[in-house]
Design brief:
Elements lengths: L7 E6 L3 H12 L4 E6 L2 H10 L4 E5 L7 H8 L7 E6 L4 H10 L4 E4 L4 H53 L6 H15 L4 H13 L9 H4 L7 H7 L2 H9 L6 H8 L21 H15 L10 H11 L7 H11 L3 H12 L6 E3 L6 E3 L1 H23 L1
Parallel strand pairs: 1-2, 1-3, 3-4, 4-5
Antiparallel strand pairs: 6-7
Helix pairs in contact: 2-3, 6-7, 6-12, 6-14, 6-15, 7-11, 7-12, 10-11, 11-12, 12-13
This protein binds fe (ii) ion (FE2).
Fe (ii) ion binds next to loops.
């Protein structure tokens, strides 16, 4: 028999004082039990409230509240403690109820045998300690998972910052793609989980460009076939970089497939239609819109209206028509309207998000968003100033 780790309080409830004394004597012979008693269920409940009880042993037949009723009521006060019912053979119905409700550990029939009772109590307390230990472990695991989520977030930020540092023209690109993608996802009534993954996928979609030489990234003219080949590896490299980061499994798929075209002419896997993950189809439209409305080393921006014309023209071939249509519902009007929406979106975006260990409920942290948002606005102002000069 393993040693018990703690001293335990046992509550014994019985309306017959002689029984109480007898039970007390048997249990007190064990050194690490503290036995408290009650002569009826009401008093018993009061003692459960006042004491940290590990085990309740109660008689079934008592005037007023029965043992089963007491055990049921005790669940509201102390759910974890172990419960033993003392019954006569005639209390079969009560016994069945208690067992079916699942809150008794064991029943002991009267008259009980002292050694058997001691053993049952001992086993019950071992079960209690195991339960407590498991609860503590689950708590620790949850804390560790939360820590991991935060670490992953830190890694994502570092990766996004590293890409921005390398490709000046993309500064803010990943953020905008990510936010526009979330707006489209919201218009398509996607779940918060999917929106989160789309946002993360948007942030990280081009991260693989970290490995592309500047001579290619910054080339003002058309890329040679060899250079194109290098460039076209970036979705796969992005997905590899994300690797097995916790909580990014779906985002990684969106990233890998963000250059797949609806008609199957994209890359890397030439997926067709709805075989392309929806998040990837959304990021593609968002990415295309942002690319067309910003200057690139190899071509000038074609502006909002030009981008809308292109998106409409390529719906069905490059783009999923459902995604383009959703985008048009939010963004056809004007670039200013989209920018306003992005600005609003930032107030509850990933950069201000952190989420609980369950990973389903995004929690808004204004401090983080405030800082990042300010950086983003500053970045926009700097690039606007540079364009004027
Ligand atoms: Fe890309």
């Amino acid at each position: 028999m393993t040693e018990l780790l703690f001293k335990h309080k046992i509550l014994v409830v019985d309306d017959e004082e002689a029984n109480l004394r007898l039970l007390q004597r048997v249990l007190r012979s064990q050194s690490n039990y503290e036995v408290i008693t009650a002569v009826n269920a009401q008093e018993g409940l009061a003692k459960i409230k006042e004491n940290d009880v590990s085990l309740i042993i109660t008689d079934q037949r008592m005037p007023g509240m029965t043992g089963v009723e007491l055990l049921r009521a005790s669940l509201n006060v102390n759910e974890d403690c172990i419960k033993i019912l003392l019954t006569g053979y005639t209390d079969l119905e009560a016994l069945i109820d208690a067992i079916n409700e699942g809150h008794i550990y064991k029943y002991i029939t009267k008259p009980w045998d002292a050694d058997e009772l001691k053993l049952t109590v001992r086993r019950a307390l071992e079960a209690y300690e195991l339960k407590q230990h498991n609860t503590a472990l689950v708590g620790e695991l949850k804390d560790a998972m939360k820590e991991m989520e935060l670490l992953s977030l830190g890694t994502i930020r570092a990766l996004a910052d590293a890409l921005d540092a390398k490709c000046d023209y993309t500064a803010g690109h990943s953020l905008r793609v990510s936010q526009i993608a979330v707006l489209i996802g919201r218009a398509m009534k996607l779940s918060p989980d999917e929106l989160r993954d789309i946002e993360l996928g948007g942030i990280l979609h081009d991260i693989g460009k970290i490995g592309v030489p500047e001579s290619i990234l910054w080339k003002p003219g058309k890329l040679s076939p060899e250079e194109k080949e290098v460039m076209s590896k970036h979705p796969e490299i992005s997905a590899q970089i994300i690797g097995d980061l916790r909580g990014l499994k779906r985002a990684r798929e969106y990233v890998r497939h963000h250059h797949e075209f609806y008609d199957g002419s994209g890359y890397p896997d030439h997926l067709v239609g709805d075989d392309i993950p929806l998040g990837a189809r959304i990021i593609l439209v968002s990415d295309a819109y942002d690319a067309m409305t910003t200057d690139r080393p190899y071509r000038k921006a074609i502006g909002h209206d030009g981008a809308i014309v292109e998106l409409k023209k390529l719906r069905d071939s490059q783009f999923d028509p459902k995604v383009v249509n959703a985008f048009l519902t939010i963004g056809e009007e004007s670039a200013a309207a989209i920018n306003d929406l992005i600005t609003q979106e930032f107030s509850n975006s990933f950069l201000g998000w952190h989420w609980e260990a369950t990973g389903t409920v995004p929690v808004f942290d204004p401090e983080k968003t405030g800082k990042k948002y300010k950086e983003y606005i500053e970045m926009k102002e700097i690039s606007a100033g540079e364009k004027k000069n």
